[in-house]
């Protein structure tokens, strides 16, 4: 089995989403025009602002995918939920 086949789909999807969020706004031919206008703003301005919001959404989706994958991986290894309160802290407080 190769190393690439061991990579889970969540990592591939997250990588593609992050690449899209970074690369597409850098492609000058996609926004090097003045028309169409939106509420009086040239295309360049509202297109770049649109990508600010789209990139935030894509990064959020990527984060949630990777967080869910990390939880599945930790559960499969018997390590527990990383977001759950530490059980050791509770037992120490109960003993005092």
From TrEMBL:
Lineage of the organism: Bacteria, Bacillati, Actinomycetota, Actinomycetes, Propionibacteriales
TM stretches of this protein: 12-32, 44-66
Protein's name according to its UniProt entry: DUF3311 domain-containing protein
InterPro entries for this protein: DUF3311
Keyword terms of this UniProt record: Membrane, Transmembrane, Transmembrane helix
Region called Disordered, residue ranges: 74-96
